[in-house]
Amino acid sequence: MALPTANLIVVTFGPRPNTAWIASLGADVLDERGLMRVEPTFEVVDHPGVFAIGDITDCNEQKQAQKYPVHVAVAAPNIVSYLEGRPLTKPYKGSMEIILIPIGKNRGVAYYDESFTAFVASNDSLRGLLCDMRTRTSRIYGKDQ
Ligand SMILES: Cc1cc2nc3c(=O)[nH]c(=O)nc-3n(C[C@H](O)[C@H](O)[C@H](O)COP(=O)(O)OP(=O)(O)OC[C@H]3O[C@@H](n4cnc5c(N)ncnc54)[C@H](O)[C@@H]3O)c2cc1C
């Protein structure tokens, strides 16, 4: 398909996982979107000893690089447990959902979920920073934003 001429193109569809070859593990390995079906331990469903993390998994969350240190922190001890013949006990409970979009030099918008709000509320320094940002925003726009 030819793209029309434009000054800026913002791609808003998600990438498609290149997972067709993984189906050789078994028909049930992928879901209907081509994502790998994983347990909360990141072990592939019905495939003991096979682990997957990152965009490729069917975790119900935004696909973001910032999630993957948390995936690793769960998968790594489970892999060690598997190798030592112990049960896999560490479950993934999800990560904060945060999206930051800079607009120009000094502006931007942010989306965050309630887990981020709770994290900020539990931390005095962060709470102060957020209040300060809110005050500055009000000052710039002349009303409570
Ligand atoms: C435009 C864009 C902007 C983004 N911005 C952000 C952001 O600001 N913050 C954020 O947290 N996340 C962002 N992300 C998401 C982030 O890039 C991904 O979540 C992250 O890269 C996923 O890491 P991954 O290792 O799981 O997969 P990938 O980074 O996709 O790595 C998969 C690798 O596997 C390789 N591969 C594929 N098929 C095969 C095969 N058959 N054999 C061997 N190798 C293969 C690929 O070439 C690739 O190198 C953005 C993504 C895009 C597309």
UniProtKB/TrEMBL annotation:
Keywords: FAD, Flavoprotein, Oxidoreductase. InterPro entries: FAD/NAD-bd_sf, FAD/NAD-binding_dom. GO terms for molecular function: electron-transferring-flavoprotein dehydrogenase activity; flavin adenine dinucleotide binding. Signal peptide: none annotated. It comes from the Eukaryota. Pfam families: Pyr_redox_2 (PF07992). Residues 6-69 form the FAD/NAD(P)-binding domain. GO terms for cellular component: cytoplasm. PANTHER family: APOPTOSIS-INDUCING FACTOR 1, FERROPTOSIS SUPPRESSOR PROTEIN 1. Belongs to the FAD-dependent oxidoreductase family. This is FAD/NAD(P)-binding domain-containing protein.
